[in-house]
Amino acid sequence: MARAAGVRLCAFEELDSTNDEAKRLFADGGEAGPLWIVARRQSLGRGRLGRGWISPLGNLHASLVLSGAFPATRAPQLGFVAGVAVLTALRCVTPGGSKLALKWPNDLLLERAKLGGILLEGLALAPGGEGARSCVVVGIGVNCVDAPEGLPYPACALASLGPAAPSAAQVFTALSDAFVETLAQWRGGEGFADIRAQWLAMAAGLGETISVRLARGETREGRFETIDADGRLLIAAKEGIFAMDAGDVLLAHEPPNKARSLDQNL
């Protein structure tokens, strides 16, 4: 399906970072996709806020270069598009798919342990109004055979599910097709309400009391109500409803020292 839709693939044995390779291709030749860049291993994988991403052989390391006539204000929605696509793909190829969930804003979970993550980065924004072309790279990492140890939060790999666990190649094949379908639903932002509904149906901690550690070290605690039309996390606290654009989420029943949920990784 992905190939029929015009999506191309560049595969490498090793890269420093699939996201960085996407940026180089854009800078050197104006690559605007749709193009998947996949590497069997990364030497300098990274995630949100420059955090390191451990990238051993056998895990999935992939980035999708995308461009389109959607305004820059809608580009962040692609993180939720990616989340829905990845979970849809994983549930298709993974035994016990009901154990998989999404954690706001960009974590993939298996039984509440971190399985992977998503990193969204802008490549360039053409000048103009609402119809200006936006170019982004969507980085996706999934722990297929191995998960790092000694982290301040639980992490796991698909291999923990036993012999029927899918390989990185199987996950990627399902992901590339699922992403085509999810992008078609999104329609450059016009269909974000449908994506939002699907994301919420896959969300971990919805309706539970959670804590969110904000960038300045402040922590908010409240009931996870929903995400709004802009993808912001809404929590209900004693003082009222709070909307957050970014932060590290701690789900109920997680030890406090596991709050750095967006590390390893993306």
Summarize this, please?
This protein has 266 residues and is of the alpha+beta class. The protein has helices spanning 18-29, 78-93, 168-186, 192-201, and strands at 8-15, 35-42, 60-68, 100-103, 107-110, 113-125, 134-142, 209-213, 219-227, 233-237, 240-244, 248-250.
Description:
The structure is a single chain. By secondary structure, the protein is α+β, with helices and mostly antiparallel strands. The chain has 2 domains: 8-201, Bira Bifunctional Protein, Domain 2 (BirA Bifunctional Protein, domain 2, 2-Layer Sandwich), CATH 3.30.930.10; 209-257, SH3 type barrels (Roll). Helices cover 21% and strands 31% of the residues. It has helices at 18-29, 78-93, 168-186, 192-201; strands at 8-15, 35-42, 60-68, 100-103, 107-110, 113-125, 134-142, 209-213, 219-227, 233-237, 240-244, 248-250. Strands 1-2-3-7-6-5-4 form a 7-stranded mixed sheet, sandwiched between helices. Strands 11-10-9-8-12 form a 5-stranded antiparallel sheet, with no helix packed on it.
